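Lab notebook, design round three. We kept the backbone fixed and only want residue identities now. Task for the bench partner: fill in a sequence for the structure below.
Input C-alpha cells:
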C-alpha cells in the first residue's frame, strides 16, 4: 500500500450506521471487516472511517483523496448490494445532523470551490433495524458478497463501473 504525496491515504472508505440497530450496522461492520483484509499488491493506501451518520464535517475528510467509497445499509437497493457513482447535490433535509453522501460532496464543493474527488456509494441490502439486535442472516450474506466485490475493486481501483450489482458478476 502506498500513501499519497500529502501523506494522506489516497482512498477513503467511510461506513456509517448504528451498530445497535440490526442491519443498520452494515456500514460499520463492513469497515471492521474490510480494514482487516490484506491490501492487494500495489493497491493504494486506504483510510477507514465509521460514524453513526454523515455530517457536515465529513466534507473535510474528502480533502486530498483520489477516491471515496461511502458504505451504508439500504432497503432501496437490489440484493445483495449496489455500487453507483455519486454527484454532489444539496441537502434538503430539515436537520443538519443526517446527511446523504451527495450533500457531503456539495459541502466540499462550497468550501473548496471545486468538485470533490470521485465518490461512489456501496449500498448493502438491509431488512431489519430493530434496536438491540445484530445483523440478520441475509444481511450477513449480503455483507460477505459486498466484501468479495470490494477486494476486487480495491485490487483494480479506478475501474468502478457506472452501476454494479453482485448478480451481474454471477
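Proposed sequence:
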Amino acid at each position: 500500500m502506498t500513501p499519497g504525496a500529502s501523506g494522506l491515504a489516497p482512498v477513503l472508505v467511510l461506513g456509517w450506521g448504528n451498530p445497535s440497530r440490526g442491519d443498520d450496522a452494515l456500514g460499520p461492520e463492513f469497515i471492521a471487516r474490510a480494514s482487516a483484509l490484506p491490501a492487494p499488491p500495489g493497491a493504494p493506501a486506504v483510510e477507514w472511517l465509521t460514524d453513526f451518520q454523515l455530517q457536515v464535517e465529513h466534507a473535510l475528510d474528502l480533502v486530498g483523496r483520489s477516491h471515496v467509497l461511502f458504505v451504508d445499509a439500504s432497503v432501496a437497493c437490489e440484493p445483495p448490494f449496489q455500487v453507483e457513482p455519486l454527484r454532489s447535490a444539496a441537502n434538503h433535509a430539515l436537520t443538519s445532523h443526517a446527511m446523504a453522501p451527495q450533500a457531503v460532496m456539495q459541502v466540499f464543493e462550497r468550501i473548496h470551490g471545486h468538485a470533490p474527488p470521485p465518490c461512489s456509494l456501496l449500498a448493502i441490502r438491509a431488512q431489519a433495524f430493530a434496536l438491540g439486535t445484530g445483523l440478520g442472516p441475509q444481511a450477513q450474506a449480503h455483507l460477505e458478497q459486498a466484501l468479495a466485490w470490494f477486494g476486487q475493486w480495491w485490487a483494480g481501483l479506478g475501474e468502478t463501473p457506472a452501476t454494479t450489482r453482485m448478480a451481474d458478476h454471477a
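Keep this in mind before ordering anything: The first helix runs from residue 26 to 34.
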